Predict the 3D structure of the following.
Amino acid sequence: MDEIRQNGKTVLYSEDGRSIPMFFNNLTGKNFSGKEYEDYIRCVALTDMGFSPGVIELCRNGKTIKQGVIPNVIP
């Protein structure tokens, strides 16, 4: 199982092996940047998904495999 955790809590998870790493890359700015990225963080990650600015972890089978940061894009 893959999951994205923040502050020790699971925010997103899946067993499909693909979607959670993609979401992690979206959240950490690897898949897009600039205004599109800021809009995604503001309108999707913070509002719809329940994340907050700060450190996130990509975990597989309970073990952290990557860390990243969701920036504070709220003016």
